[in-house]
Amino acid sequence: MASSGVSWKLPDHPKLPKNKTVAVVVLDGWGEDNPNEYNCIHKAETPTMDSLKQGAPDKWRLVKAHGTAVGLPTDDDMGNSEVGHNALGAGRIFAQGAKLVDLALASGKIFEGEGFKYIKESFETGTLHLIGLLSDGGVHSRLDQLQLLLKGAGERGAKRIRVHILTDGRDVLDGSSVGFVETLENDLAKLQEKGVDARIASGGGRMYVTMDRYENDWNVVKRGWDAQVLGEAPHKFTSAVEAVKKLRAEPNANDQYLPPFVIVDENGKPVGPIVDGDAVVTFNFRADRMVMIAKALEYENFDKFDRVRYPKIRYAGMLEYDGELKLPSHYLVSPPEIDRTSGEYLVHNGIRTFACSETVKFGHVTFFWNGNRSGYFNPQMEEYIEIPSDVGITFNVQPKMKAIQIAEKARDAILSRKFDQVRVNLPNSDMVGHTGDIEATIVACKAADEAVKMILDAIEQVGGIYVVTADHGNAEDMVKRDKSGKPLLDKNGNVQILTSHTLQPVPIAIGGPGLSPGVRFRKDVPNGGLANVAATVINLHGLEAPTDYEPTLIEVVDN
Prior knowledge:
The chain is α/β, with parallel strands linked by helices. Helix content is 30%, strand content 16%. α3 (81-90) runs parallel beside α12, α6 (143-155) packs parallel to α7 (177-193) and α13 (403-416) packs parallel to α15.
């Protein structure tokens, strides 16, 4: 995606030297919050990160990593790794995910685009199926977007609509599924009054049905396929409200893990399996948990599980879920055009770049960092290394993950002196934080801290510079809270664990023997966010950032 006509040469920075090795370390899911027993970062032994915070006050600060700072619609929207790394790499704020969809729905553009025209061809004789997460969590999907999509499709000729719901309980409170299903049933009843045959056809909990990611467990997708496409599931009900209420009444039931169910008519026949000639839309806007179902729906040659039947359908995603795989090939809303990323500028200016993480975050420190672009800008100048993540276990079982291996690769790259920038993502605090296991998350944070130390020690040896930051919060608050900030309790009096990201700011620290004596964080960018990091890093390489980038966080004062 080389932007033609771009003047790639960046001017030298008037006060900062070139040729210093710069390590850029992103701690995934590492926010800043008040110390308390549910702040795993506070509870963990993190001497390295503590020393950065307690060191020079003008070399540590907080930046925003959520909401409008990363291109999301409002400051009630928590950040995520994709938009976070887009902002870190791009140096500017692009409308993202939910916001792109909101703009397309508000303007009506979504209904005029190629993707909608494509699925609309099935409206006359086929059924429109909508598959996705039913909640207002705003991380993967939003109920109001589904509502507008249903309304718009009904107004534009969809005669028969079936919704395949996935209950949440991860980005919203456990138990809220019942209310969301009741709301949806209401909306579908209104469509029925207008002559549209609209019903819920199947369902299941997001972590057990359909929404697996990173090819962790294809059985999750298969359970969804069986219910949505084949109309087969261990549980059959005549109404979705009854289904969710009954399945939630089972011991240890949880919205995230509800078993798959299908809705049947009075003769016990499923009301909405997906068949030849139908249209399917996966309405989540966030990509990571839609890629696998997209492959199952789209790929003719597919061997991950026996699909039994592969219907000839028109399939579109809400967005393109994988720019690398061009998956799906049809989508309702086009991705943001992210051009002229910091990575591309730096390579054009002679900065040799090394990037590394383990599988679960490798794409973040490469593909998303580089503006949703796969591959190298210049293979002679760059090296990307992926360390395989553990498979077949949840991350709390091995909370140290591959932090030390990532740090060793970074250390070796730094000490080789072959690279000017060494960039890594340490996934521990995010991936283990998502499991809700507090003890394991404490171990995870300690492991990440040890990895940071190894990288900073290498920077010390080569006289380099470090930038340590994060992409969004997670491990710093592991409990759900009421409006006043007190932990919420469940009906048994136990605290309700928070497994999602947070709205907290994240730290950024700079230092190292190569940092010029007068460099400090400016006081005049109080609302700085992740997008300000790119210009900061470019400056530390001795270059001026492009003029339209978000302003740098640093200044150089003459001592």
